[in-house]
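Hi R.,

Quick one: here's the PrgI family protein sequence you asked about.
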Amino acid sequence: MAYVTVPKDLTKVKSKVVFGLTKRQLICFGGALLVGIPLFFLIRGRVPTSAAALIMVFAMLPGFLLALYEKHGQPLEVVARQIVECCFIQPKERPYQTNNAYTALVRQSQMEKEVNAIVQKAKERNERKSAGQAHPRRKERNSGCHPKV
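And here's the predicted structure, written out as tokens:
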């Protein structure tokens, strides 16, 4: 009886399209062939055949690398972008910063105290203004009459 090994993580299994190659590999190999073969025939008459073959290999190498190279499940262009960002785009010194929940709560309580103090001050000012005077509409309501418009 034949035994077949089944990987534990089925998300790492890639679907094969033709000749045991994935779509990505077929596209990259096709692009490399479209670049390399015409280049070989164009320069074969001007340089020796071995040099033309070597130039063709170097011209096709990026396509092969894009098709086959993976590091930690990431394709070559993702790895290259991360290297460029790390070395050239992001700052060299990145200080450690935390989001401390306790300091956020302290700031929030301080702001609430400030707001309450402002509201209290406004209430006291309004009370001093109208000390001993009833609100004009309150008088009218209490008298049983409707306010005159």
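The CA atoms of residues 106 and 112 lie 10 Å apart.

Cheers,
M.
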